[in-house]
Structure formats: structure tokens, C-alpha cells
Design goal:
mainly beta; Nuclear Transport Factor 2, Chain: A; ten-stranded antiparallel sheet
């Protein structure tokens, strides 16, 4: 199925930003076409906060006066302006600062967490410059480490977001090189959401807050763990997702023993599946359950859902909202892409997985998983079908090749360039996965 390419920022709003430079002694103003002179309260706050700043460049964006400048004497030929500060135009309040530091200057907890992760190992290489975000209203700091690898003839770039204590809260693949972190500007939750957080998670630190038509998603840190809570359009709580970090799943004492036992009894685990992720869901509609993502012998990712009492579930329980109300919020460009290419789809859930934005939808009676990179460009869609739903040309080609189906399910994969089926088969006593297109052309086979 042909897909229209999703381009983030392909069209820029007509109000193009203009720039002007100033030193701390100049009465700076914006050029014609902007909001006029820099508000006095902004200049007063800037000079008080960053005395001695030099090479200052101002612009306006999203209700903020944004200053890029040098400060603290940190300046080198290979480093651009090393500070950015966002001041609210109406109040002059400093909302957020961004600065650059060297990797060696990172807090020890962040460096330790990084080197203990897969990104701290070859072939990944970390950039020597690290971006540091500080949201002043919540006194929260994030460290963004840029890593890249060259493997199989492809370059992959990932931005890693760490809290000061070394909690990895987000991974973003192939983010925009000119990112300005606008989405991390301080946002105030509604009174209802704020009250719910204070009651259920006192002293939680908000990392990110997304307000979309579908509702509100709040990412926060509580007791050293990353949490995501979703609220519907009426600001009523729908679910909370808690992510566990681990090297050995048996070390996660917060997961009940009966749940771990049930996980280890599944065929995916018994056949050598490696546990990569573990999450706990607390929902208004379906109670509490756990989700485990395992990597199979074919390098596929399989999710297993287990109830609090240790029952292995058939698929993910309903998070709430039904078919008439989305239970996930997505960026406008992503939502438009889904509407154009999957008309009538309902967004079930969204989150980040291995650096990609993962959006789960319900479309044509199937649950489908869509992946988008850091520029919100569509990368891939996948979903399961029964083997009876395979095109006749596919089953005929498999039979002619001496392949026998080893599973009653198959995967459908779509990318911007092509689409194919992935089918597990038996051939001369071997377990194989066959990649085959709709016309019955075998693309490749992979051994167990």
C-alpha cells in the first residue's frame, strides 16, 4: 500500500523569524515584522540572570523571547553559542535554559548509567558535546547525549535524555539536527491533573507534558522510576504506565513473583526469548497488568501481557476510552499521517521504543504498530494476520519451495519503500523465517 511521506516542518509558517545581535549594553529591539521592542522586563531579567553575556542574538517563538549567547567564558571555534534562554514575553519569567558542556563534565551518575547501557558500548560513539536543559519553573534538569553508530552501511543517530540521577527517560532516533527543545518548555497541568499527581505521587517531578486533542499525557519521575499517566479530554485519569530498569528480571522486586513465574512459563521465554523491557499498567478500566517485551530467536519483538494474579492474557487489555475516544496523544503531523493513510483508525497508545515514536492503532479490525523517527517521519508499520489471510501467491510460492508453515500467524510489514510478509516455516527440518512479497517473490530467509 503506497504511503504519503510524512514531512515535519516542510512548510514553515509565514511569520518567518528575524534576528538581531546585541551586547549587554545595547537597547536591543526586534526587527520589523516581530512584536516590537524587547519587553523591559525581559531585558531586566536577562541582564540579571546572565551578566556579561556577549554575542547575544534574539528571536521570538511560541510566546517567548529567545536569546542565544556566550556566557561563562565558554567559547571555542568549533562550538556555536553555548547558551539559549527562553523568557516569557508577557511576564519576563525565565522558562528554560539550554547550554553545552563536555561529556567529561556530566554527573558521575549519568556517566555510569550511560556506560552501563548498550549505547555505552561499541559500535556506539558519543558526541563530546552534551546539551543540558533546565526548566526553571520545576527546577528539573535533563542531559541530552548524542550517540551514533555506523553498521551495515547505515548511520544511526540517537538522542538520549537522562535525569541527573542517571534515569534514561527518552530515546529519540534521527532527531532534527536543528532541534530547539521547544516541547520541553514548562507547561502547567490542569488543576485536576495536578491534584491527582499530588494525591497519588507526592513530590513527583514532571519531565514532559503533552496536551493534545485526545487528552493529556504526563511523564514524571517518582521514587526513581519513570511514569507516564494519561488523562482523557475531560481530564479524568485513564491509566499509568511504569517502566522498570533491570539487568536481570528477577532483581525487579516490584513485580509479583506469580507474574514472573507466569512469564517464564510462556513458550516465547522457554524457546530462548530474551526479556528486554518490563512495564506495569494501572488502569481505570482493566485494573493492573504487566507488559514484557521479549526478543525471539528471529530477533522479533514480542509483547506478553500478564495480569496481577499471574494469568497470561490474550493481547493487551483495554486501556480505556473504547472505540469512540482515543487513548493516546500524538503530534499533529503524525495524526494527519494516520488519518490520511489509515482512515477511521483509533489511536490506542503511544510511547517511545528503541528511540522511535511508537503509535499503536486499531484499524480495519487489526491492532497495528506505527514507528516514526525523531523528525516524525513515518518509518514502518507492522501487524499480525492469520496464515489463512496470506495472499494466494504467497502460499503457493511457499508450497512450491518446499516450505511448511510453522505458525498459524504471520506479520505484515510496510515501509516507505516496500512491503512484505514475514512467515515462520519448516524446511528440511530447519526452522526458518521467510520474507516474501505479495507477488510470491522470496526476498530472503533467516535461520533460527
Amino acid at each position: 500500500m503506497a504511503k504519503s511521506r510524512l514531512l515535519l516542518g516542510a512548510c514553515i509558517m509565514a511569520g518567518v523569524l528575524f534576528f538581531t545581535s546585541c551586547s549587554e549594553n545595547e537597547n536591543s529591539s526586534f526587527p520589523a515584522g516581530t512584536s516590537g521592542d524587547i519587553p523591559a522586563q525581559v531585558m531586566e531579567a536577562f541582564n540579571a540572570q546572565f551578566p556579561g553575556a556577549s554575542n547575544v542574538v534574539w528571536t521570538t517563538k511560541a510566546g517567548y523571547a529567545v536569546a542565544d549567547f556566550y556566557w561563562d567564558g565558554t567559547r571555542s571555534a568549533d562550538m556555536s553559542r553555548n547558551h539559549t534562554a527562553w523568557f516569557a514575553l508577557e511576564s519576563g519569567i525565565l522558562g528554560m535554559t539550554e547550554k553545552e558542556i563536555r561529556f567529561v563534565e556530566l554527573p558521575d551518575q549519568v556517566k555510569s548509567a550511560f556506560f552501563a547501557s548498550e549505547y555505552g558500548q561499541a559500535p556506539w560513539v558519543a558526541d563530546d558535546e552534551v546539551d543540558v536543559l533546565t526548566r526553571n519553573s520545576v527546577a528539573e534538569t535533563l542531559y541530552i547525549i548524542d550517540v551514533e553508530k555506523k553498521e551495515g552501511g547505515a548511520d544511526t543517530d540517537v538522542d538520549l535524555y537522562y535525569t541527573p540521577e542517571g534515569i534514561l527517560v527518552k530515546e529519540v532516533i534521527d532527531a532534527d539536527d536543528n532541534k530547539d527543545y521547544q516541547e520541553y518548555l514548562p507547561q502547567t497541568p490542569s488543576a485536576t491533573v495536578e491534584s491527582w499527581l499530588k494525591e497519588n505521587y507526592p513530590n513527583a517531578r514532571i519531565i514532559d507534558l503533552d496536551n493534545e486533542d485526545g487528552g493529556t499525557e504526563v511523564e514524571f519521575i517518582y521514587e526513581g522510576l519513570k511514569h507516564e499517566a494519561f488523562f482523557n479530554q475531560a481530564q479524568a485519569w485513564v491509566y499509568t504506565r511504569i517502566e522498570y530498569e533491570f539487568r536481570n528480571i528477577d532483581e525487579v522486586t516490584a513485580i509479583p513473583s506469580q507474574v514472573i513465574a507466569a512469564l517464564k512459563s510462556t513458550s516465547v521465554y522457554l524457546e530462548g526469548g530474551r526479556i528486554e523491557e518490563a512495564e506495569k499498567y494501572e488502569t481505570e478500566k482493566s485494573g493492573t497488568f504487566y507488559c514484557f517485551e521479549l526478543e525471539t530467536r528471529f530477533d522479533d519483538d514480542v509483547k506478553i501481557y500478564i495480569s496481577h494474579d499471574g494469568t497470561v492474557l490474550e493481547g493487551r487489555p483495554d486501556l480505556g476510552g473504547g472505540n469512540t475516544e482515543d487513548t493516546g496523544t500524538v503530534a499533529g503531523d503524525v495524526e494527519q499521517f494516520i488519518q490520511e493513510n489509515y482512515p477511521g483508525a483509533v489511536i490506542i497508545e503511544r510511547g517511545y521504543d528503541d528511540g522511535y515514536l511508537e503509535v499503536d492503532i486499531r484499524h480495519d479490525g487489526k491492532e497495528k504498530e506505527l514507528l516514526f523517527n525523531g523528525r516524525y517521519e513515518w518509518v514502518r508499520t507492522s501487524w499480525e494476520i492469520s496464515s489463512q489471510e496470506l495472499p494466494a501467491a504467497v502460499t503457493a510460492a511457499l508450497t512450491a519451495g518446499g516450505y511448511r508453515l510453522d505458525d498459524n500467524e504471520a506479520d505484515v510489514i510496510e515501509t516507505p519503500d516496500s512491503s512484505w510478509y514475514e512467515v515462520e516455516v519448516l524446511h528440511n527440518g530447519e526452522e526458518l523465517k521467510v520474507f516474501i512479497d505479495a507477488a510470491g517473490n522470496i526476498i530472503k530467509t533467516v535461520r533460527d
